[in-house]
Design goal:
Elements (H helix, E strand, L loop, with lengths): L5 E6 L9 H8 L13 E5 L2 E5 L8 H5 L5 E3 L5 E3 L9 H5 L6 E4 L28 E4 L18 H5 L5 E6 L5 E3 L3
Antiparallel strand pairs: 1-8, 2-3, 4-5, 6-7, 8-9
Length: 183
């Protein structure tokens, strides 16, 4: 039986000070060595200030429905994740996301992600490791939080990095009640 509450990062725009610590923390999570940082979260500036924007982990996620390879999938905790190994790079998920929170970007590396001397990169599952010049789907996966199979799973780094607590990891039930999940 799956959990009816879904994990989601709730944004409180009135608390955001626009410092960008969340974006920097997100860009560093699990990126291959030498890769240009590419965050799955961005700051949108309006006349009232900055607002962090990221995947809302939709209850009826269009990116999951349209993926012909089932590379986008929902975990038992209702988190929408992406499996790069299964991905066909058709970009249907990018087009289907009504929030514009999935990107498709080329991974630029200054060196190969693995080498015989260093072995596999321990900070990212080998199956999802992009190679030089390969494009990849960039989507928030809550830093793998709650995924026992991800050795690098952690409490979402953007939430940890936010000095003003404008970002909160919560369990949201179908009627919208929130329960904050502390680190």
């Amino acid at each position: 039986m799956t959990n009816t509450k879904r994990l989601q990062i709730v944004v409180k725009p009135s608390l955001c000070n626009g410092c960008g610590d969340c974006v920097r923390a997100c860009a560093e999570r699990g990126r291959p060595e030498g890769a240009v940082p590419y965050p799955a979260l961005r700051l949108v500036w309006r006349s009232t200030g900055a607002t962090p924007v990221l995947c809302p982990q939709c209850a009826d996620a269009a990116c999951v429905r349209v993926c012909p390879a089932q590379a986008n999938y929902r975990t038992p905790d209702q988190v929408v994740r992406h499996n790069e190994q299964r991905c066909l790079h058709c970009q249907l998920c990018v087009q289907a996301c009504s929030f514009g929170n999935i990107d498709y970007a080329e991974v630029s590396l200054s060196e190969a992600p693995d080498s015989p001397e260093k072995g596999p990169r321990p900070d990212r599952p080998r199956s999802s490791e992009p190679t030089q010049g390969q494009a990849a789907i960039i989507k928030c996966d809550l830093c793998g939080y709650g995924d026992a199979s991800d050795a690098n799973a952690c409490y979402p780094r953007c939430v940890q990095a936010c000095p003003s607590r404008a970002l909160l990891l919560c369990r949201v039930d179908p009627i919208g009640d929130l329960e904050v999940v502390d680190a």
